[in-house]
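Recap from last week: sequence in, structure out.
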Amino acid sequence: EPANQAEYSLISDSTISVIFTYLIIDNNVTTTTLEQGPYVELKGEDTVYVEISESYRDKGAIAYDSLGERIKNVWTEGSANYWEVGTYTITYLSYSSYDNSYAKEAIRTIIVVDTTAPEITLNGASVFNVELGTSYSDWGAWSTDNSGDAATMTTTGLDEVNVNIAGTYYVTYTAIDQSGNESTAIRTIHVK
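Predicted structure tokens:
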């Protein structure tokens, strides 16, 4: 209660906020619940790692008003490109008619990664038998990557194949994708 006119003038145009604390006692269990405003709660993890080009099904979120009643409408802002490595955020929003205000948002971080090496396919057989003194032409190889982008292919050992000297030779194909994942495939050539 104001003591005088000056104190009354200070509070006459102000807003007073009151927080209620409830003490519930039931079967010797005591719980204190502090009322809070409306909020959105994520279903599942708040940070999710997804391999590039793989499908991801979001678990969504649930919104509640300050009475703890579920709010039906939840919508999202933001998106993730599952064909590009990067970090993306999805924001879940809702509005509480009971509270006449927007709910406190929830945010999920989606990190798209590329940890899968390219696949190499040899053209022709993985083992060739070459007659001594004849010729050898390598058939090469090709690669595919889960990112959809072309991998860098290199070939080593081809210049060491000598059809005039009997022996076993190896040609190695190496593919490296844009994320640095590497795979190799080997062709064996028997000169005899």
